Amino acid sequence: MRLSPGSLAVPILTVWLLAPWTRGDDPKPPVKMTAQEDHKRMMELLGIKELRRGADGNPKSERAANLDESKANPYLDLPDPLTLKNGKKVTTAEAWTNERRPEIVEDFDREVYGRVPKDTPKVKWEVTSTEKQSVGEVPVVTKKLVGRVDNSTYPLVTVDIQLTLTTPAGAKGPVPVMMEFGFNFGGKGPAPKAGAPPSWQQQVLAKGWGYAIIVPTSVQADNGAGLTSGIIGLCNKGQPRKPDDWGALRAWAWGASRALDYFKTDKDVDAKRVGIEGLSRYGKAAIVTMAYDERFAIGFIGSSGAGGAKLHRRDYGEKVENVASSGEYHWMAGNYLKYAGPLTAKDLPVDAHELVALCAPRPVFISVGSLQVEGGWVDARGMFMAGAEAGRVYELLGKKGLGTSEFPKQETALTDGDVAFRQHAGGHTTGPNWPTFLTFAERYFK
Fold it and tell me: Which of 58, 300, 306, 406 could crosslink 277 through cysteines, CB 3.0-4.6 Å?
């Protein structure tokens, strides 16, 4: 039978043909699991029956973290950042850049931080507000931005990156910017208490620079239950991770890189002079950002501890077993769990000194608080040792390392080289080290 163009049978037939295709193409909802369930799933995927328990932060516990320096270095041999896997020594900058550096990145990707998918979705930045303010006595312009991540491949997960950018209102051109992994306080930061020293934001502005705050949890949740949402869940279409998929630290670093993409388009920012700063878990994210994205000019790494600038092979404070637990494993690749059972930290193909070395030749400032106030959990000496060992790579590239392997007295600033270190007398904060860092950074941001 021939149907006339005006027949109702045509649209009815069309709907009948399209409907099954539409229904069949509906995406599956994200898998929902608790962190403990996902952690157990990853252990089963790796064939691990049991993980060793981590250290306890309570000094009175039977499993208290070791704070005895005589017992802190059970594994004395660190992987050599200047020896290729075939045993050949690296003696030139070209060999480091073209051969050894890619080997180290591959090991970190596979075993420690996880791989970023080759095709991550694009981010479209939107300035949601522009406000003239004063921070202290400095007139500024603060932009609030949202980075809308393209979720057309999986509409059930939405990722909107939160970012604020504050620059001096009277700047005559683009300015350097320090970006912090932190919380969005409308750009100003919390008001300093009466009689307190200037906030870090005020100190940055006093140099004529700007600052930005990116909210990492707007990129990826800080828990294992969130691994099927956020940017990781979006890229995996709501499915659980594979053992070498990226964890939250790489996801947060990816978000910072997308913010830097935006800065390259903003006439108020000198995108070649953008630094990254973070504290604690965000200190870990800051050193990972510096290591992987060579566009960042400088890093201010605050009390980053295990998984950051602290040597994994140190038994002092937090250990690999702590980071591999169900409360922290989401920061890392699933493969990292292997090193809490049956393997050990000694079996890791890389260590934190090589993470610092990946930042070379760009400057890095390692910050930590005092043993008496902050405590030993983050292992000040372990971070210092990583910085000192990384110096060999800096020197190969024509730069200067820490200049010493002797752990300095508290409040001694080692800032003559391109790797810097200072242990302040305060607690779990970068606050007391901001003045020293800014003096250090001024050498590069002039």
Answer: 300
Q: Are 286 and 301 spatial neighbours (Cβ–Cβ below 8 Å)?
A: yes
Q: Does 118 reside within a domain?
A: yes
Tell me if 47 is assigned to some domain. no
Residue 120 sits in a domain of what CATH number? 3.40.50.1820
Q: Tell me how many domains the chain contains.
A: 1
pTM recorded for the entire structure: 0.93
* Within a domain: 55: no
Residue 301 lies in domain:
69-445
pLDDT (tens digit per residue) in 26-83: 899 999 999 999 999 999 999 999 999 999 999 899 999 999 999 999 998 999 999 9
Q: 37-76 burial, b if ≥16 CB within 10 A, otherwise e?
A: ebbebbbeebebeebeebbeeeeeeeeebbbeeeebeebe
Q: pLDDT by residue (tens digit) across 242-280? A: 999 999 999 999 999 999 999 999 999 999 999 999 999
Q: What is the dihedral of CA 142, 165, 267, 445, to 10 degrees?
A: 120
CB 178 within 8 A of CB 277: yes
Cβ–Cβ under 8 Å, residues 141 and 239: no
State residue 213's pLDDT score.
98
